[in-house]
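Input (histidine kinase):
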Amino acid sequence: MTRTEYRWLLPSAMADPELPGDRRGRARRTVRDWAVDLTAFLCAVAVGMVTVATIEADPTTPDGVLLADIVVGALACCALWVRRRWPFGVAVGLVLVSAIEPVAAGAMLVALFGVAVHRPFRPVAAVGALALVLTPVQPYLRPDPGTSFVEATVIGALLPLLVISWGMAVRSRRQLVVTLRERAQRAETEAGLRAEQAQRLAREAIAREMHDVLAHRLTLLSVHAGALEFRPDAPTAEVARAAGVIRDSAHEALQDLREIIGVLRSPGESDGDRPQPTLATLDSLIDESRLAGMKVTLVNRVDEPGTAPAATGRTVYRIAQEGLTNARKHAPGTEVTVTVTGAPGEGLTVEVRNPAPTEPFEQVPGSGQGLIGLTERATLAGGSLDHGPEPDGGFRVRASLPWPA
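Output:
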């Protein structure tokens, strides 16, 4: 919201901070301010001229009094030009003057309206009470021949009350608009923060998915490429088999990468969604690992894997995939056992266990982020995961996930 918009809504003393180049700390008038002040001045002058014409029509009015009324009325109207600087003081002064000078009544009403718009309730109530107390003074000192004292007093009391009520209504509306604008801005800010948080969570999920998927494929590439490097005299059939595994793993890694990158694309840019892994596709993961030369035993005690929830089955698949990847990197040549048990209402449990390696091997570097990602994945799925070394030197990863009845 710009400064000019706030000036339309807030009192000038509250909404106009000190501007650069204004040594006295006063806000410069805008074009709208000049238009409002000129309109208020002309309205006060019009009321004063009508009052002067009424006084002049009374033959009993001395010329000196008429001249004094004109001068005082003109000064009262001119005082409105400084009401933005001293709204309360100008209003009090005009209330006192209008108590004995009817020509200043128009300027007094304009000043009361300005105080009601730009000041809180207490000063408005004080100046309003002063105006009501002094209302009977003018009809008593300068009675109107065509109006009784009671009528003049009632009219003189109603006009300030109406003007003050109108000004307070304008102030309330402006404050309401400001509050609504602030709430809208706060809502936009909160929506932006929620969007940023959602993007951060989405990036974390994509990074976790990318690690779980690509680490499995790239480990195959590393292991078999290392075997070809250190065994250049291997039989032709074994070299061909290792090259085939490398080729297939590279192809699958590219496909998985396209799938993950597809999440970041716009809806119209997708090349087509590949089916997500589930508990029913766990057998294909085991077959792929066996084809790569691993010794894997699958113990699946789930009667109907296809009935498991898709999200839970995908989590089981990723945990088994990461467990096989870690075993291939840190315990090559050992027999890995993957055990899956569970039923609806009892939950799902997946365990990946491997013994300690018996032969020396080249250590494949790892960052440990895979197990951290699996723990987060299991927690997000409503379950838990624990991992650690076994007494015989092996390693175990075990996760428990919910499966509603």
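The chain has 13 helices and five strands.
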